[in-house]
Amino acid sequence: MSNEILEVKGLKTVFTGKKGKVTAVDKISFSVEKGKCLCIVGESGCGKSITSLSILRLIPKTTGTIEEGEILFDGVDILKLDEDGIRKIRGNKISMIFQDSMTGLNPVMTIGKQVIEAIKVHSPNIDKKELEKKALSILTDVGIPEPAKRMKEYPHQLSGGMRQRVMIAMALSAGNNELLIADEPTTALDVTIQAQILKLMNNLKNENNTSIILITHDMGVVAEMADYVMVMYAGKEMEYADAKSLFESPLHPYTSGLLKSIPKLSTNPNEELFTISGSVPSLTDMPKGCRFSTRCSETCKKCFEKEPPLFDLNGHKVRCWKYEERTNGR
Amino acid sequence: MGKYVLKRLLVAIPTFFGITILVFIISCLAPGSPLELLLADPMATEADRAVLEHQMGLDDPIVVQYFRWLGNMLRGNLGTSYRTNLPVSQMVLERLGPTLLLTVISTVIAILIAVPLGIMSAYKPYSAWDYISSGLSFVGASTPTFFTGLILIYVFSVKLGILPMGGMYDSGTRSILSLMKHLILPAAVLAIFNIGSILRQTRGSMLEVFQEDFIRTARAKGLKERIVIIKHGLRNALIPVVTVLSTMIPFLFGGAVVAEQVFGWPGLGNLMVQSINARDYPAIMGITVVIAVAVLIGNVVVDIVYGFLDPKIREKR
User: Fold this and answer.
1) For the domain that residue A257 is a member of, what is the CATH number?
2) How far apart are CA B66 and CA B54, in angstroms?
3) What is the CATH number of domain B94-316?
4) Distance CA A248, CA A256 (A)
């Protein structure tokens, strides 16, 4: 199993607020192989971003803690590293693209300085001219027009899409990128730029053997990028499989619901779009049995009584009582 | 940036004239005429009084008086003091240096102490250190300067005898060392008073900045925590701190008036009190205008600092 760059085991991230403890990520496990892309899919608030922040230990200390679990990166538990140890991984071996490009850049520093800073942290011996050249070429790579001019500008002078590309450039500038975590990197971008960015990430994967964790709710992006898919719902993994079998035979009712909600050109425009009824339960008020039971159309009595474990069907994992017998029979 | 500075300077000019009008009107409305003080002699007749009033121009319409005063002032002539018969400009100039020295030094001390302490408080909010520093800064900010002044004099001058009680130099010397010894206590008094508000503001805005996404981005780059705090955090947090500093400038001069009295510091504040007691109108007006100009310059400096800190301000105005 040495082919796995990242192995997350039983990760539990908890936030403490005025109303008490809230478990945002509840003992999830997954792994990422070298040079492969894992997509994490799910509705807003299901814990996708918290999972990714936990990997780099970027959960704000004052409110959140990682209570349980192991995050093995190259065999080393990230959660046991000291501050200096994790710092040497951040932006170097694991880099991250954040979702909030509007607020993710420092408003009082020029774009150039922020990109150069990202390159310089982990290779302090490069001289200034070389740094600028490198920053310029990365900004060109992510499709920033007039990069030399943009480098002298401040974030507020750039459009949202351009800022997002600067964020991506900073993540791509990491020296020894072994894992790239991208939290909805293309949500703010128009389709042509989105295609460019996805291509860039694919190149990184194919040429440098970089692994990718891509967080998205865009099933089209998943289809294009994913080798493996993990579907999350209310802090738990519901289904976890390779992309092909997930798209061809989704097992969990939630996954099939998600796939059905994608509008197709062939659908009759007068027909109402499919939606999963109801909304995600509040993290403070989880249903007793299966978390999806309140919205599921295929429930049985057991679904409301006991939370299903993750059943393993030949590597296709699913958290649903429907599949209990199929695993037991084997 | 040059254009921005020029604009700030131009905006200050009408403010300056507004101040001169206000100062003049207030001093005219103040009860008690200087004539009564000058003519304290019971033998003076109504005729003497009229002659003197005419000599001093006090019988002219108020608008004429104002423009005469303004015209003279712009030529550097602030009039002659009723009390000492010396040119006001000369009196003010002598006193301006010590006051500026006191206010600037005390502000610098306050900033150098309050900003790092505020950062430390924000980095570990609700820790023991946070409570101690907040508590002490509240005590400092809510104790009147004359009281802190008296306590410091009692401890350091009377009991320990290591620092002088007041004045600016030891008699017969004008050495820098002697000046510094005399400066410590009054500067400390003013600094103690101001540390509180700067510290609270630094703490508050640092706490806010720590929540920002770009701090997370900076951490994700693998930057050292110190660099994240200073380079990415502090620079953004300083903008509201500078705002607090700018509102403090007028109060600095006010605080200096009290501190100068307590420590016998030969500054503008001291002269102001003497002049007010003597209803020395030319002196009062001269001092007020000079302080107002100092505040105006202070505000322009603050605006320029803003421009340095915040690129958005630099280009919008």
Assistant:
1) 3.40.50.300
2) 16
3) 1.10.3720.10
4) 10
Chain B interface includes A150 (CB < 8 A): no
Tell me the three state secondary structure of residue A328. Answer: helix
The number of angstroms, rounded, from the C-alpha of A222 to the middle of its chain's C-alpha atoms is 11
Copy the structure tokens of residue B2. 């040059």
The shortest C-alpha distance from A87 to chain B (Å) reads 5
Residue A110 lies inside a defined structural domain of this protein: no
Identity of the highest mean pLDDT range in A185-194, B26-35, B57-66, B220-229: B220-229
B234-253 residues touching A, CB cutoff 8 A: 235-236
The answer to whether B72 touches B20, Cβ cutoff 8 Å, is no
Burial class (CB in 10 A: 0-12, 13-18, 19+), B71: exposed
State pLDDT tens for residues A73-93: 988 999 999 989 999 899 889
**With an 8 Å Cβ cutoff, are B221 and A109 in contact?**
no
A169: in domain: no
B197 class by beta-carbon count within 10 Å (0-12 exposed, 13-18 middle, 19+ buried) = buried
Q: Which of A29, A1, A23, A7 is nearest to A319 (CA)?
A: A29
Q: For residue range A207-261, list pLDDT tens digits in order.
A: 888 999 999 888 888 998 999 999 999 889 999 999 999 999 899 999 988 888 8
Phi first, then psi: what are they for A81, rounded to 5°? -75, 155
Q: What residues of chain B lie within 8 A of the CB of A59, using their CB?
A: none
What DSSP line would sit under A79-124, residue for residue?
A: GGS-HHHHHHHBTTTEEEE-S-HHHHS-TTS-HHHHHHHHHHHH-T
- Enumerate the residues of chain A whose CB falls inside 8 A of the CB of residue B212: 103
Question: Could you identify the residue written with the tokens 């100062």?
Answer: B23
**pLDDT given at position B214:** 93
For the stretch A102-154, pLDDT in tens is 789 999 999 999 999 999 988 888 889 999 999 999 899 888 899 999 999 99
B242 contact residues in A (CB cutoff 8 A): none
Cβ separation of B217 and A58 shorter than 8 Å? no
What Cα–Cα distance (Å) separates residue A207 from each residue in A23, A32, A203, B6? 38, 17, 6, 54
Quote the domain boundaries for residue A296. 4-93+174-328
CB A232, CB A47: distance < 8 Å:
yes
In chain A, the number of structural domains is 1
Q: Please compute, for residue B88, the number of CA atoms within 13 A of its CA located in the half-sphere on the CB side.
A: 25
| Residue at A139 is within a domain | no
User: Helix, strand, or coil here: A72?
Assistant: strand
Q: Tens digits of per-residue pLDDT, A169-207?
A: 898 887 678 999 999 888 777 888 888 888 888 888 888
**Whole-angstrom Cα distance, residue B69 to residue B52?**
18
A109 assigned to some structural domain: no
Residue with tokens 């800073």: A117
Question: Is B224 at the interface with chain A, CB within 8 A?
Answer: yes
